[in-house]
Amino acid sequence: MENQKYLDDLRDIRQMMDRSTQFLSLSGLSGVFAGSYALIGAWFANSIIKEQLATSDYYVRYRDIENMLLIKVTAIGLAILGLSLITALICTHLKAKRNNETTWNSSSKRLLVNFLIPLVTGGFFALLLLRHEFFELIAPVTLIFYGLACINASKYTHRDVRYLGLTVVVLGLINTEFTGYGFELWSLGFGVCHIVYGAIMYFKYDRK
């Protein structure tokens, strides 16, 4: 009996330490919304590309068409990112409030910093690829660095985020080999994976 009580005390101490170093108010619903935004944005971008190619004048230079599409697709990507961030902040704030926690604390700061370092690095790398016209590598690079950002941040939140990151990294590596499937793999990584892992996290943690 005494040994069991000792083990229970150790388990309670461990849980208290985990709660003090991890931000556990990350909302699974925000992942579902982010994935939905990504799929809608991907469909919209694909429609724009098809329409642009179908209606462009034969004598319009290929480079001009490419530049127009690039601007439109980039705008869609930025809109998806903005919507996802706003939704994540709202959902996480509501969950933290429900759990009597503060959204902005030392744990959430560590989570954000560790998430942003690989993400911002990947963003600059993608811009350099864009500048040097390595267009086929932009999708895999964004997948890989986003996955690394999730893995790096997972030390400070639910472990499920690590598995999301690993899945997205693998998809990015596959996309590096099969560059012709960038659109499909990008949609799978940022869309479907977010919805699946977001739903898992919602049912595991948010509905308790």
Automatic annotation (TrEMBL):
Keywords linked to the UniProt accession: Membrane, Transmembrane, Transmembrane helix
Origin superkingdom: Bacteria
Transmembrane portions of the chain: 21-49, 69-90, 111-131, 137-154, 161-179, 185-203
Name listed for the protein in its UniProt record: Uncharacterized protein
